Amino acid sequence: MIVRNIQDIIGTEREVKGQGWTSRRLLLKKDGMGFSFHETMIPAGATLKLWYKKHLEAVYCVAGNGSIEDLATGEIHAIEDGVLYALNNHDRHILRGGSEDMRLICAFNPPVTGRETHDSDGSYELVEE
Questions:
Q1: Is the bond preceding residue 43 a cis peptide, omega within 30 degrees?
Q2: CA–CA distance, 120 with 111 (Å, rounded to integer)
Q3: Confidence tier at 123 by pLDDT (50, 70, 90)
Q4: Rounded distance, CA 90 to CA 129, Å?
Q5: Structure pTM?
Q6: Bond preceding residue 111 cis, omega within 30 of 0
Q7: What phi, psi does 32 have (nearest 5°)?
Q8: What confidence tier does 55 reach under pLDDT thresholds 50, 70, 90?
Q9: Is 101 helix (H, G, I), strand (E, B) or coil?
Q10: Domains along the chain?
Q11: Looking at residues 97-115, what average pLDDT do you find?
Q12: Residue 116: what pLDDT?
């Protein structure tokens, strides 16, 4: 059984920060669950162009607001507490923070190792441990 408190992750190697985001990795590949599970904070007003070419991601908003734009269709969807979006087709997208910081709960398949960083196209490479 794995039990973790988010407060124990803050300030450790499991808290990863980038331009416009902070990700707290509760479960990683080495935990052996077959997916990784993160709390991600997106500040108000942030704009992130992302494309997970090698990962599927499901995201559930538990606080704040923003939007996600599907770059294939131009469709924009509002994100707020209670909204889930799933990038089931490796969708290129723009995630925008709204008037409040967003707190997102994310699952990645395959799981991330925790060492990934976004490439210039917004994607993660597969990192083997």
A1: no
A2: 21
A3: low
A4: 23
A5: 0.88
A6: no
A7: 75, 25
A8: confident
A9: coil
A10: 14-109 (2.60.120.10)
A11: 93
A12: 64
